[in-house]
Amino acid sequence: MQVKDKVAIVTGGSNGIGAALCRKLSEKGAKAVVVADIDFEGAQSLAGEIGGMAVRCDVANEADIFHLVRETEARFGTVDLFFSNAGIMIKGVLEVSNADWQRIWEINVMSHIYGARAVIPGMLERGSGGFVITASAAGLLNQIDSTPYTTTKHAAVGVADNLVINYGDRGIQVSVICPMAVRSLMTPDGGGIGALDGMLEAEQVAEDVITALDQGQFMILPHPTVKDYLQMKAADYDRWIRGMQRLRSKHFPDQSSEK
Prior knowledge:
alpha/beta, Rossmann fold, 9 helices, 13% strand, globular
């Protein structure tokens, strides 16, 4: 799917991958770029930079997402591309509170459902459109120090799989982005073990996404090694788990010594 002359919404658009996508879409000739974020000041700043529109949106609230889509349609007519990009990280294993579990589930999973409900029916009527979910390599592999992140990103990949199965042959380009470490507000500590294969700049990820959309690609892997790891995991799951346990022992020794 070409982005030129398209109307695009990017959630979580004020920083990281979202901001890079907004800039890249503008650079590639999108008709309009809507920067959606709970950080409205950040969204306004970026929208002013690229000549886009800013909308405050809490993606955990379905009404906010429907408002975002209606505002975009009122100004530009249609939504051609929806980048369901917003997400959060909560570290921890068993100690994570129920409240934090609910929060990360709503943002990292339900927001994709809300976005799909808001835009895919219209895309089906027109016979064209694009829906892109930002997941993570953790959704294919694992994030050792975060059960909530791992679980919700696996779920996000599952949502994308199901959407492309149901709508991918009906004119809807569905894609899912699964990078390892990317420099953003989510990686202030340098990305941890996710950066063992290198930390990418968000601008490179955005470039990879635009190229993948042009090629009609579903699975977008900015770190090519993720495909190798996924194949190793599928080939011998038990062996892969033993390797991950070794990584845990090496990089999280305190966790490994818990009784």
